[in-house]
Write a structure and sequence with these properties.
heterodimer, A: alpha+beta, Nuclear Transport Factor 2, Chain: A, Archaeosine Trna-guanine Transglycosylase, Chain: A, domain 4, 2 domains, 6-stranded mixed sheet, 5-stranded antiparallel sheet, 11 strands, 31% strand, B: mainly alpha, two-stranded antiparallel ribbon, 64% helix, 2% strand, 60S ribosome subunit biogenesis protein NIP7 homolog (chain A), PUA-like_sf (chain A), nucleus (chain A)
Amino acid sequence: MRPLTEEETKTFFEKLSKYIGENIKLLVDRPDGTYCFRLHNNRVYYMSQNILKLSTNISRDKLVSVGTCFGKFTKTNKFRLHITALDFLAPYAKFKVWVKPGAEQSFLYGNHILKSGLGRITENTMQYQGVVVYSMADVPLGFGVAAKTTQECRRVDPMSIVVFHQADVGEFIRNEDALT
Amino acid sequence: MTVLNKSKWKGGTLQIEPAKESFLHKLAQERQLEQQRPRRDTDDKHPNAPKLLESFSKAGVENFTMKAAVPGTEIPGHKDWVVSKYGRVLPVMQLRRKKGTKTCTIKYDPSKYCHNIRRLDPRTADADPPTPVAQLTWQMNSGDDDISRKRRGEFPPYRPPKPKRTHTDVLESIRAATQARPAQVVSCAKLKNHQPMNEFVPANDKRPAQRRERARYEDSDSEEEMRRLVALEQSSHNAPGRDVQDDNLEVVGDDYLVKFGGARQKRRGSLMNQDEDDYDSADTDELFTSRKRPVPPRENISGERTAAPKRKLGEQDKGTKKTAVLSKEAEEDSTGTEEMATSRKLSLPQKKNNIPEERTGKAKRKTKEDNGGSTEMMTVHSEEDEDETDSADSDYEAMFANVTRLEISLADLQKLAQESLEKRPPPDARVSPARVPKRGTLPEDILAALLGDDGSDDKREAKKEKQKGRRVARTRLPPFRGTATLDEDALKKTDVPENTKDKSDGSSSSFDEEAKAAAAVRRPRLSPQREQKQVSPDSEELPVSRKPSLPPQKNISEERTGKAKRKIKDDDDERSKEMSVPSEEDEDEVDSAESDDEAVFPNVTRLEISLAYLRKMAKEKRAPPDARVTSARVPKGGILPEDDMPAFLGDSSSEDEREAKKEKQKGSTVARTRLPPFRGTATLDEEAPKTTGAPQNTTGESDASSSSSEEEAEEAEEAVALRRPRLSTREEEERQRKDNKRRLAAVEQRRKEAQEHKKLIQGALANLDAVTPKTGKHIVFNFDDDDEPAAVAADDSVPARDKARAAASGPRLFGSSEDEEDGDDEEDGGRFHIRPQFEGQAGQKLMELQSRFGTDERFRMDSRFLEEEEKEDDKEESEVKTSVAEDEDFLQEEKRRNMSILQGLLGHQATSAKPSAKTKTFRDVSALHYDPSREEHAAFESKADSNKKSKSARRKKREEAQKLPEVSKEIFYDVSGDLKAMFGPAAVQKPAEQPKASWDEEEEEEEEKDEEQPAPEEPSGFMFSFFGDEIQTASEHKEYKAESIQAAKVFRWQKDSRLQDSSEDEEDEEEVQQEESGAAPKNTTEEMVSSSNNFFFFRIDDSRLSEGPKWFCRSSQLEEEREEWEERRTELRQEYRKKHKDACRKLKSSQKT
């Protein structure tokens, strides 16, 4: 387990900023304690200082997970957000998409969100903007990438994709073995 | 040929025959033949047919029919021709049929069967030309999508098959399919959620697996894939004719607050508690569907609807509800919140019905049929609601639904309720603004009936304003009182003024009904507790209420006032009994308060929709509420306000003052019936006399005001608006003091309760403590052994030695071995000595050590150990510290680095971002309680002073306006006989410009005199002109208008002090403007008058006579105007909705803070 290098941090923050923008600093600079990001097994974990200290008692090869996993670095050194990061993305999300109840299931099975399933969207959403997906009952379901701007979303036909799926809470079951 | 045949040629024999015909040649020949043959055939055919016919005719057959022949008879001379049924001659057919291997022929004898021959008309066949073969294939104008292109043979460039492709292909095919069948698309769009998904899921079944695979192994190309996907999307969707009208997509702003997740969202520190979510998608689903399509099963929907908005309501009115709930006990509070929670969660109508059941259970009145009836009524009301399709009004619907629900829940007075239902005008009327005026006038009519005698007696038809004002006062008051009665808590009072404000808006429309509902609610509650006093009025009221049509309504409204009054008394009774624990009735009151609150809101909407004159009326009405707000805090004195005293005080006050004789026919009958209970309350209540005194005050005032007929117009307004303040100036302080006293008492009581509660808990805990030593006794086994010092449960060994001390020490849990050792000389206090060796970091360690060893004497840790360890500890500590410091530094540095990276990423952010200072501090609204002794609670006090001040200022201003301008005594007028000069408008102003020389000189002299004087006020001077006078009144009129607008501005959601200030400024400005306008129009009229030379009296050929009627005529067509209005109406409505939304939002936010 080690802190992220500069480059890694940059990549990571770039990805994260697509979803929560400048709210990253609220994660980095938290009033309720010192929190940090750590890299372990190519995965980025977000944890408090206390847990960090505690985790030093466990040998690296035995340590499976510590804190909250935000995602992992791929072999090509790109960062991929995991659904476990949703807890931290959802409250800080800048752009949101609400999915109709009927389309919830589809999304939770890993499908993109079609226009027909789009219940509500934050205005001024740009294309390829990271969005957090909520159910109509405001339960965060996952996150994705806006395939269309808000204006386009109004016009497109109901079968077109408006949000590309990135992660959803269904992965907790589907991807159980891979998630940490 | 034969010669040459078999001849030798170059060593070979020749075989010569005629050559085979060339194929082409043969073909040409055949074709030629074929061309010739048909002609021949036709030639053959035609001769044949006449032959047959001829032979037939010979055999007696005409036109294939043989008359008078039995079916089945053969035609002579013709084999196989028989007469079939109906006399037609037909051939017998030999049909060959293959049955398995053998073939057989079937003889079809037409005479055996009914035949159905249709004759083909060759001409018609010729008429429509046969479609050429080339055109037999037909084409569909399919779209420009892939599939159709492929059908046409245009294949897209080959793409290497990838896992993605299959998916997109599926997508596209589906898309193409839907495109090819536009109807299908429509239906999909209509069916919303489920249909498309059902279609889709199987198609995409493969996806997750693929995705997962990709997620694991080919993470890297996710971006590229996405890009490709996007490209695909674009290519497929940029096709023309794709613009599907977006119907239900909602776009929200950046500041959209997540409803339920919102709370979680705010808790940024603790993000993990998601388990609190009550997430029920089924609920939302139903909600959704019910919102989207109004399906016949309305009852269901209504249930859902009421459930759905209720949730909103729960959110929005949490603050008010909580305050309302405040007066309940803790347990009741909890049940209330439970109710709220359940109502928020449950969407099913049955469950909704359960809630009323609960409530009514509390009201001790519930029957099953009522429940059934209630559902019916609910449907009716929900239909009303559905008409208001706008989602923006859903809150209002919700509230309205709530009201009905409450009404229903107490439907044991079903008759009454039904009556009210009947009286309720057709629900649609509420929606369309065109019909709204009708509604708006409705209560007026009722009240006109109510006050009919007053109105007729008054003879002041010109002062309709006054009547209106009075009506308004009356209509508004009952519910106000309803809420006011509940204002035992000071906090609630802070809410109530706002309610009343709102109420003022709603008073014009169907508010009576709501109030009635409230009355109906109140009624059952009261009756059990009003034994003797109420029996008589009740018995009177009931028959009265059974009367049909208008009278009952009137009576009910009056009855309601009586009810409310009794209610007050009721409250007082309770208070006098010192019932600290609020009874169920109290809770019901709270409910009714809620219902009132809710009842208030729909009124607002309805009014806002209503037309201009209604609005004007509302504006006029808005002055009073201000006054009422000031005294809203007066709990009981204020409950019986002066304005409505006349309404139920029977023979006293306003009716007296007006000396109405007719009213005794009607009004007093009702009034008298109601009077006894009131007096009863008066005797019971200490404050009731005061209230009776109050109206007398007002009557005195109104007397004074009525004396001068000139002021009546003003008084009409004032009488309503200013009674309150005047009273309040006199008694305000007393009342406030009293109120404060009461509030303090309430606070005190609350504290006491809390203390009691604490005591109770303490007592319980003490009991627990007391139990422990007893149990300790059981452990003891060496009771008599004096010398055993180290007893674990040593406490009881001590008394063996020293009983007195044991008695003193009582239960001793913490007796240590030291105590034993030190013996008797060390008192109990000794064991609480601070031991220095256990202090500090090292001491703590020592302590831990000690605790590990237990109380063993041998291992007692004293200060010696401490000294030695100190250094080591220090070392260790310093090491640890340094490491910690290093860690800290490291982390800090990391953080800094992160921040710098972030800054580089985002560009503009400040480094050490403060955790947004805007974070709201949570304030428990339910715990909020107005405490007059606390300084900061002054913020909760409604500012009566500013209003008063403004009012007084306004009044002063009005008086000023009313007053004739001061004229210096030195000016005198030389009255000449010239009428023109006399009636002409003030020439004083511009005498120099006046060309008239006759009195010019004199005027000039006067002018000079004027100029000599300072003449500070009213530069316009005295004007003796009818027209000038008119102008003045006009300006006055204008002032009124401006005022009313200003009053209208003081909404609750606009209670920014800034706004009020601005309004004040406006007033000032208006004053200035008034002065200016006082001068400016005069000039213009002066010119006009002078030019036209009009007199006050009309002449025959007066231009005014011709002009005047034009004002009454319609300038444009009625149709056009209507259209114009129609157009404008939508705009207005939208405008209103926007405003209303804003207001709601503001209200919400203000409630939250």
